[in-house]
Protein: 2-isopropylmalate synthase
Amino acid sequence: MKPNQIKIQDVTLRDGNQALRKPWTLEEKIEVFDLLVELNVDGIEVGFPSSNETEFVASKTLAKRAPVGKPIAGLSRANETEIAKTWDAIQYANKPRMHIVFPVSDFSIRNVLKISEKEVIQKIQKSVSFARSIVGPEVEIQFSGEHFGDAIENFAFTKDAFLSAIEAGANIINLPNTVERYRPMVFVNMVKEISEFIGNKAKVSVHTHNDLGMATATSVECVYVGAEQIEVALNGLGERAGNTNLYETCIALHQNGETLGINFQRIYPTAKRIAEMTGIPIGEKTPIIGEDIFSHRSGIHQDGVAKTIKQSKGAYRTFSPEFVGRKDAETISFTNQSGHRAIQFLLENRGIFVPQTKVHQLFETAKSISSKENNREITEAELVELATGLVASL
Structure:
């Protein structure tokens, strides 16, 4: 039940920015916006215009800057005054999108809103109808049922809520896993049921948070049960543990044969710049963009890498560094976990060929040095020096 085309909607400038210790200035937001345009994401949510004047000005500025045909969304609560303010900001985009959010889970309705389910339906209908009346018939309206992922207890009600939003004029139904509480397939199955219930009445979108570290997996699987849009963020930015990571989601979909419009070569430089702008470092083992993800130290792995390093598919590599705009390459390093093949590979790359009978001698010497010095890595330069001395003695 996979859609014909998957849309990547970025929420970094709204959900990502609002979670920063130091939210971006207008100039910084413009730079992030331009990075997203270069990445060629399908749509961009630029902010929460009604929350304060700074957000309003930024959203309006970015809407005016938007390329032709690029959906530009602004978030609003289900409040007519806020909806009108949001429209004042985003209407300047060539393709504006109104995004309205309101809670739908039983827990939120009882403990946060403290109103009846009937009143929730009325609120949704009134706000979406008002939005449609001011944006006209052609502009997209996206309705998000906040805490949808927590709506297991009142799932039948959420169907009614989404249907009321569609009847009032919503084109896109966004299903947020506002707080990740359960295993991915619980949420995926909920999305599947809503998708089947809605049919072709509206597009289905998902927006997942990463509280348990499964946001990307959850979002990717939702594509295969009917979700047509995935909301993501650069570097996985967002409230608490963050949102679905743009890079991981797009690479995962690509690896599974999906065609996306993303400029994959812009991924790594974008990630590095966002890390600089936020002061949030990229972990060395972070998928796609981590410094160490193309390093190999285990002997078994090193043998496979050496045999497939020039092939499009590597024995221990999902994608090539250059595919995501990296200038580094697969590397083999020598530790006390490495094998003979590591020494051969490193030396041969430097044009040094040691007789097979002497490789084991080098191997034992290098391992001995590593073990005696707290299992440290033996550098390529050290191996070259050891090999050069060995060759000279022959």
